[in-house]
Write a structure and sequence with these properties.
This protein is α+β, with helices and mostly antiparallel strands. Helix content is 37%, strand content 34%. It has a five-stranded mixed sheet with strand order 1-2-3-4-5, with helices on both faces.
Amino acid sequence: MGSLLYKQESYTIIGVCMEVHRELGKGFSEMVYGDALEIELINNNIKYKREVKFNITYKGDLLSHFYVADFIIDNKIVLEIKAIENLTKSHVKQTLNYLAASKLKLGILANFGEDSLTYKRVVL
């Protein structure tokens, strides 16, 4: 059995998400959790980009619509955040689409809308 992709980085990102959830609890909007995550990422010296736009092409043509990933961590992990009752397969598919568009291999889907933080590692 192989080792987890970006194991240490994932552990750190999930820890940061847990800290935000521990402090704020559930009930806020995704934007609020994103703002708090940004503070935690800065305080933990984690390189990130927020609301990163990824163009989509179809048969070589650039489409007018695009994907916007919540965070790209260290230029290698997509962090997609939700503040909903529970995660579904469609949220995993959305994260997979972000990975395909970004050419990255790992996504972390984090949900702040439950009593405890829930998350999924999504590997392309």
